[in-house]
């Protein structure tokens, strides 16, 4: 593979066989290479090895684990360019975005290397003089994850880093479209000194088999999943039989609100960043735009002009800001939602065309109403429907009118409104005058049917720890 200096990052590649899995570049459909396909027996074997490795890992000190994780972080950053190129080749996003994701993904390794040292217990005041009460924090055991293709490095490190810092082992099935990033990250962890079988990658096209195996295995104590709400429901049902701990980061339908007192230029800049990053293929990207009637025309015009300037193309090419959609199915869904919106009365302000291959023009729709299907569904593509509103009360009702509750955004310079609306929005995360809100130091997660649990921050470590109560009597 050209221009990959550290070829050990691609040691996962194998020869083409009847069972191997082809990895393709969505920008041109060219095959990048082949990876192994693990069957049920092979995955069960790896779970067993992860269980044994975890026992020794749990006995190491938090400081020892942190030293390895700091080396892992440094290797991720030292290999940032190679990792970014691998990601763009298999996922399609522009190289600048891939570089940013490598740094973002590495930040979780750095953060949890230190946060693992703060898994504090407590000494509890006793109600009886002859007893002492304390709590300690212990790793849950083997943790498993299923991760998506849209952020193939960050979605793994955001889960694996706290698990490893807590003393767990971690087994992950990455999306079959983007497995190379996962293998590369694991290879660097190995080079950093992480013992064998603590960070295990399994790949297969049989996602149903893996989900059932992870949920049913008595050796796995924790399941983490990022993906659709429908699949999340299935995994939760399957995990209930063995009463596994679960954390789920599921679908979103993020409102992006522009009030009449907003800084319109700042709002346009935030809208571009939030909506069109990764060609709109993010769970927290703005899905529907509510703009106050007094500034609707100004915002729509400036927004459409800015969108029209976005460069579409292969993510490896200079100045490209919009890469391809991940596959033909995603393109077909984007086209269907656009067609439905136009048939329901929406107007194309800019864009609106499917291009050759898996590319789709970034699009702005005006004359959109709240009840249109494109507003009710998660788009996961580069289309921005813009809706008028007139008063704050009805706006909050529309913004909260969804089963989802992951991210939300609004722009206003009224400090009273800032607190009032931020508290009224029924979402796990709220961006105020900011379109990009993800960071390792803040808890990431949703409410309602957007998920359970939090990733990042101190809460992300809690997901992989059990609290044990110890009572000392006869004192």
Automatic annotation (TrEMBL):
Pfam family, one: Aldedh
Alphabetic keyword roster: Oxidoreductase
Keyword Oxidoreductase among UniProt keywords: yes
Record keyword Oxidoreductase present: yes
Domain Aldehyde dehydrogenase: 18-470
Classification via Gene3D superfamilies: Aldehyde Dehydrogenase, Chain A, domain 1, Aldehyde Dehydrogenase, Chain A, domain 2
InterPro entries in the cross-refs: Ald_DH/histidinol_DH, Ald_DH_C, Ald_DH_CS_CYS, Ald_DH_CS_GLU, Ald_DH_N, Aldehyde_DH_dom, Aldehyde_DH_Superfamily, Succ_semiAld_DH
Protein family according to the UniProt entry: Belongs to the aldehyde dehydrogenase family.
Protein name: NAD-dependent succinate-semialdehyde dehydrogenase
Species annotation: Enterovibrio qingdaonensis
């Amino acid at each position: 593979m050209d221009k990959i200096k550290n070829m050990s990052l691609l040691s996962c590649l194998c020869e083409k066989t009847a069972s191997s899995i082809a990895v393709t570049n969505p920008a041109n459909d060219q095959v990048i290479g082949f990876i192994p396909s693990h069957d049920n027996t092979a995955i069960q074997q790896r779970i067993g090895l992860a269980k044994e490795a975890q026992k020794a890992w749990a006995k190491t000190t938090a400081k020892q684990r942190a030293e390895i994780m700091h080396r892992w972080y440094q290797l991720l950053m030292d290999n940032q360019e190679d990792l970014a190129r691998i990601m763009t080749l298999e996922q399609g996003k522009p190289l600048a975005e891939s570089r940013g994701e490598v740094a973002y993904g590495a930040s979780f390794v750095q953060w949890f290397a230190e946060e693992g040292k703060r898994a504090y217990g407590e000494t509890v005041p006793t109600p009886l003089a002859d007893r002492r009460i304390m709590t300690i924090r212990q790793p849950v055991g083997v943790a498993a994850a299923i991760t998506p293709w849209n952020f193939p490095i960050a979605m793994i490190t955001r889960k694996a880093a706290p698990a490893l810092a807590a003393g767990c082992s971690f087994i992950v099935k990455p999306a079959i479209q983007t497995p190379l990033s996962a293998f590369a990250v694991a290879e660097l962890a190995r080079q950093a000194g992480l013992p064998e079988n603590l960070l295990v990658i399994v790949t297969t096209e049989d996602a149903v088999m893996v989900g059932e195996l992870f949920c049913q295995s008595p050796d796995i104590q924790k399941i983490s999943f990022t993906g659709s709400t429908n699949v999340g429901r299935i995994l939760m049902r399957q995990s209930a039989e063995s009463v596994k701990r679960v954390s789920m980061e599921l679908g979103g339908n993020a409102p992006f609100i522009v009030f009449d007192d907003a800084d319109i230029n700042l709002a346009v800049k935030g809208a571009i960043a939030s909506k069109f990053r990764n060609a709109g293929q993010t769970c927290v990207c703005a899905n529907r735009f509510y703009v106050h009637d007094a500034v609707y025309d100004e915002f729509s015009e400036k927004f459409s002009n800015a969108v029209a300037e976005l460069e579409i193309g292969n993510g490896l090419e200079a100045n490209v800001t919009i890469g391809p959609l991940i596959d033909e199915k995603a393109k077909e869904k984007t086209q269907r939602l656009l067609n439905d919106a136009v048939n329901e009365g929406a107007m194309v302000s800019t864009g609106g065309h499917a291009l050759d291959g898996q590319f789709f023009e970034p699009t702005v729709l005006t004359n959109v109403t709240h009840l249109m299907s494109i507003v009710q569904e998660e788009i996961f593509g580069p289309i921005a429907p813009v809706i008028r509103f007139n008063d704050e009360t009805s706006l909050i009702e529309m913004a909260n009118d969804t089963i989802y509750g992951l991210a939300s955004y609004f722009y206003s310079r009224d400090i009273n409104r800032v607190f009032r609306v931020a508290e009224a929005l029924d979402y796990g995360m709220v961006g105020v005058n900011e379109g990009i809100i993800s960071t390792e130091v803040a808890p990431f997660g949703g409410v309602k049917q957007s998920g359970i649990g939090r990733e990042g921050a101190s809460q992300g470590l809690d997901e992989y720890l059990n609290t044990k109560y110890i009572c000392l009597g006869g004192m």
